[in-house]
Amino acid sequence: MSQIRITKEFRFEAAHALMGYDGPCRNIHGHSYELSVTVIGTPIFDPESVKLGMVMDFGDLKRIIKKQVVDPFDHALLLNASISNREIQQSGEPFTNVVLLPYQPTSENFLIDFAKRIGELLPAGVKLHNMRLRETSNSFAEWFADDN
Questions:
Q1: Most buried residue, 66, 94, 133, 136, by most Cβ within 10 Å?
Q2: pLDDT tens digits, residue range 21-78?
Q3: Three-class DSSP category at 24
Q4: Spacing of C-alpha 111 from chain mean position
Q5: How many structural domains is the chain composed of?
Q6: Is residue 13 annotated as part of the catalytic site, yes or no?
């Protein structure tokens, strides 16, 4: 049986700040993130299945990524939960969609988090293969299942 990879791409906008960082990214700033998610599996060969010939329905993959990543992160301010409310309020900005994360909000850590969120919801026989999170036009991080 042939293993096939399928990929779905997503975009979301988010702001973050890197607590304790020694450069300009310690300040709140935003990115237009681009996420590519690739899964791998064997196409369904059961002629009775409505998913005949598919590794996974692209629409099902889209629903998982949208629910687990895009919806909670899009147009949010992503901060390390260790930051104090006082520090958030000192910015003087009215932030209503703040997501406090148990990690430093870097592209690398986002991918580790996304892998957990996505991997557990994939159908039987389908595995997360790799992801690429583009933060800017010339900067991205990648996660590969074979490396983990």
A1: 133
A2: 999 999 999 999 999 999 999 999 999 999 999 999 999 999 999 999 999 999 999 9
A3: helix
A4: 6
A5: 1
A6: no
